Amino acid sequence: MKKYIGLLLVFGLFIACKQVTVAQSGEKHKHANVDGEDEPAYPKGFITTEYVAKAMNFLAGDELEGRDTGSQGYEMAAQFVEKEFKSLGIEPYFESYRDSLMAKGVGTFNVVGYLKGHDKVLANEFVIIGAHLDHIGKADEVNGDSIANGANDNAAGSSAVLALAKQLAELKMNQRSILFVLFGAEEKGLLGSKHLAKVLKDKNIDLYTMVNFEMIGVPLNDKSYQAYITGYDKSNMAAKINEYSGEELIGFLAKAKQFQLFQRSDNYPFYQQFKVPCQTISTFDFTNYEYYHHVDDETSEMNFEFMAELINKCLPAVLKISNTPSKEIKLN
């Protein structure tokens, strides 16, 4: 265990630096970005703004036409995710990456990647890192544009899952097994996550916790912390993430409780099925972004530098969640 703590401390020094140069980095390597091209050398596990931007620009591009359930755009987004998982050595959890379901008469699927844990005992426990991949497709036309690109909602969260998958696959330090899930049909009523939660419950997996990412594309307004967590008082997850990351990374947002956001994202079906801590990290605070389900929810409105910083700061916490000898995150 001391080896993992030491590596976490080293990584914390990397992400504390605003800029990382080849001369500063310890173990360096070139890696393929989301387009298959080589990027400059960075420490293992470091996510660049460029990586986030490329993932976002594809997932929220006009060509995908808003990633509506059952659409060709959603299919393209899924193929993009599957290609990235395969390149990282993240295996399908089922026979393929796809967990199929019907969503109000329309066929769709979740994309599920599997990174097996490295400890013989802890590998039987699972952590889920998730976000919804779908969006609403079209919305009210503005200046000739009717494509609801869904950059913040939720290409941003999907990009965070891809980035964390990349980081954890490169580091090869997770003792628990991790499922990276991009959910379908969230916009139809959390149908993808409801389906997968039941499937996994029927398989009787030992789910430790689920961390979901939703709308993290812009910083919070006037907060001491960088993101909030839904269902803040339902568990000690926020406190543990802050402890593991070494700073006040996650806080409480009163409006999240007021608008019952805990029940309105893909964490909730897993909480219902497994009765373990399953919560969503977000930075949408009702004052910092006005394009919810709007055609102007475009990548031009996103802060990629902030997103990369937040993901890099979440990594030590996610890694520690996957490594602690006992389940330290608990329901209150």
Provide the fold topology:
Layout: H1 2-16, E1 28-29, E2 42-43, H2 49-59, H3 72-88, E3 91-92, E4 98-103, E5 106-115, E6 125-132, E7 138-142, E8 145-147, H4 151-171, E9 177-183, H5 191-202, E10 206-213, E11 227-229, H6 237-245, E12 250-251, H7 254-258, H8 267-274, E13 278-282, H9 304-321
Parallel strand pairs: 6-9, 6-10, 10-13, 11-12
Antiparallel strand pairs: 1-2, 3-5, 4-5, 5-9, 7-8, 11-13
Helix pairs in contact: 1-9, 2-4, 2-9, 3-4, 4-9, 5-8, 6-9
- CATH fold-level name: Aminopeptidase
- What profile does the largest beta sheet have? 9 strands, mixed
CATH class: Alpha Beta
Number of helices: 9
Distance between the termini: 27 Å
Number of β-strand runs: 13
Superfamily (CATH H level) name: Zn peptidases
Low-confidence stretches: 1-32
Shape: globular
Helix/strand structural class? alpha/beta
Element pattern in H and E: HEEHHEEEEEEHEHEEHEHHEH
Supply database-style keywords.
single chain; alpha/beta; Aminopeptidase; 13 strands; about 20% strand; disordered N terminus
Structural write-up:
The strands form 3 sheets. Strands 3, 4, 5, 6, 9, 10, 11, 12 and 13 form a 9-stranded mixed beta sheet that branches. The chain has a two-stranded antiparallel ribbon with strand order 1-2. A two-stranded antiparallel sheet has the order 7-8. The model is unreliable at 1-32 (pLDDT under 50). Helix content is 35%, strand content 19%. The protein has helices at 2-16, 49-59, 72-88, 151-171, 191-202, 237-245, 254-258, 267-274, 304-321, and strands at residues 28-29, 42-43, 91-92, 98-103, 106-115, 125-132, 138-142, 145-147, 177-183, 206-213, 227-229, 250-251, 278-282. It has 332 residues and is of the alpha/beta class. The protein is globular and about 55 Å long. The chain has a single domain (48-321), classed as 3-Layer(aba) Sandwich (Aminopeptidase). α3 (72-88) runs parallel beside α4 (151-171) and α6 packs across α9 (304-321). The protein is built from 9 helices and 13 strands.
